[in-house]
Amino acid sequence: MEKILEVNKLTKVFGKGCPNCFDKTGPELDTNVCPDCGSVVAAHELSFDLYKGEILGIMGESGSGKSTVVKNLFFDQEPTSGHAIFYDDDKQYDLFSLNAAQKRHLRNHRFGMVYQNPHLGLNFGISSGGNIAERLLMNDLRHYKEIRERARELLERTEVLTNRMDELPGNFSGGMQQRVQIAKALAINPPLLFLDEVTTGLDLSVQAKILDLILEIQQEMNTAMIVVTHDLGVVRLLAGRTIVMKYGRIIESGLTDQILEDPQHAYTQRLVASAL
Amino acid sequence: MTAMRQAKAVYPFGFLDEYAKKEVRRTVLKAIAIPGYQVPYSSREMPMGRGFGTGGLQLTLSLIGSNDTLKVIDQGSDDSVNAVNLRSFIEMTCEGINTTDVTDEADLIQSRHRIPEKPLREDQLIILQVPYPDPLVVVEPSEDKRKVMHGEADYSRLLVKLYEDIVQFDEITISHRYPTRINHHYIIDPSPIPRWDVPKLHQSKALILLGAGREKKIYAVPPYTDAEPLAFDDVPFRVENFIDQHGKRRACDRCGDTTSFLDEFTSSDGNKVYQCSDSDWCREQLQKKGA
What we know:
The complex is a heterodimer of chains A (276) and B (291). With 276 residues, chain A is an alpha/beta fold. Chain A has ten helices and ten strands.
């Protein structure tokens, strides 16, 4: 299998940091706040690979640093240290050493992001079709009819009624907004998609539909995805491999089935046991 | 008259002190060097409210010399309030300059919201008064972020605005301040000139300077520079066509010209009347007809 992303020792500290930050935090010490300087260690030396067409789950409780990972990879935040290499056909990008214009290029042309809160991913001042058009325009498509056609296709694909494509996303239900957001992220057929708690806060039947949609898309377009969630069900359904995080550290990683059936780390065992 | 004499006694040529003029000139050089980039400058207090053409006025006062001939127009007319006031202020503070109504005779043209119909020459200079210099202000309220967007030529949100327009009205409805891309990078707000004037920016022979006094920005469209109005491949930019309900091009009520930008107003008997917006152009057409 072809590698698409290689993350090496990604570290993110909020606060000024001190030499003791990493020694005095972590799952063993049951904290991610450094007692000496008060900095928060959101991620410490995380390393993992992602392959083409694969779905990787990142699981953990809130505050474990799982969202930090995708925010850093999508350039919403800047890491404190570490490397990440993105393999794009025959090109390679060292993500954290790119300049602002190169970052924007990757964000606009190669990556997709679906946030938990549609307000982060969508512009609520413009229509749903306009939101998708924005993404296509970023990708240098300048033909109105083509943009319109593509936006309609995408909304159809994500099961949003196309006769409502010119309405503001604010008029839609939460599940519909999430589907518009997914359509927007997919507009440019990105080889790499980040999903940050996409089903949290939606009711169960809508959750199931959106998860189905994500799986279908992955199979159709062979998109590699990183799925961040605290929901065991989501990981079980989507992810082939899973990383379990706590206090900014990876405490367990491997095949999802293995982790769920035979958890090694005490925390994972508790997590799996507590699942309803 | 006493006020005028006093003004001469107190103020240097061009009202502004030499340091202020020097700063404006340096800003102009930078603006020309980076076509379409909004160069910030420390807009001085002028003896009139900001937003009344102080940006254009500071440019004119900094660039005019005592042998130059100046034309001041307001929406095409030399006799509108704004034009008359600015002209008499410049006459008062710049000893020895000439003023004219005739586009051909002018070295410098300060204009509010129009570019003369008559094509300008290489030795002429046009200064446009700008109320809002940044075209991105409609999509991004933070100036900090707008600067980054300009730097990276990230204008997709502006195009979304056009997309939404076409969705709603089947065409782009921006009537003036039409976002225009200069030299294939920066998009400018070309001041509230009508669409009609936007093509005149493209490969213009004359240097075009734009000054926003309240917003403290100067930018330029240098001579022979590309200026493309924003549009879609299949929904091209178009100018006003002035076609009446019978499909005929309207003519100026005064000179009968059918090639100029027309103003519409209501006559005393309630009828709609169309006249050339550019009063010097209209006068010239009348003269040609008479001859």
